[in-house]
Design brief:
Distance between the termini: 38 Å
Oligomer: single chain
Helix content: 55-70%
Strand content: under 5%
Radius of gyration: 20 Å
Order of helices and strands: HHH
Shape: elongated
Number of strands: 0
Largest sheet: none
Length: 83
């Protein structure tokens, strides 16, 4: 983040601006930036770390397989092979 060669083009995920705000900068326009999105991202990453990557991958695969089986039972055919 500190070695960027160009300025961030938008406030979306401008971590430098957020870091300045959290470090106590006096004139940071943090309320206009997508602060809800940043807090949402923080919470999502926290949930991933809490569950663990392997458990998360297994859960997603299990749900995919259940969805696929359900759709095939309804007559849908997948173009992409399971492998």
């Amino acid at each position: 983040m500190d070695e960027r060669k160009t300025k961030v083009q938008s406030w979306y995920l401008d971590l430098g601006m957020l870091r300045s705000y959290w470090q106590g900068a006096k004139r940071t326009y943090h309320h206009t930036a997508p602060i809800s999105m940043v807090y949402g991202l923080y919470e999502a990453v926290r949930m991933v770390l809490e569950e663990g990557l392997e458990a998360r991958f297994d859960r997603h695969l299990r749900h995919h397989e259940q969805l696929r089986a359900g759709l095939e039972a309804l007559g849908f055919q997948f173009i992409v092979k399971p492998a």
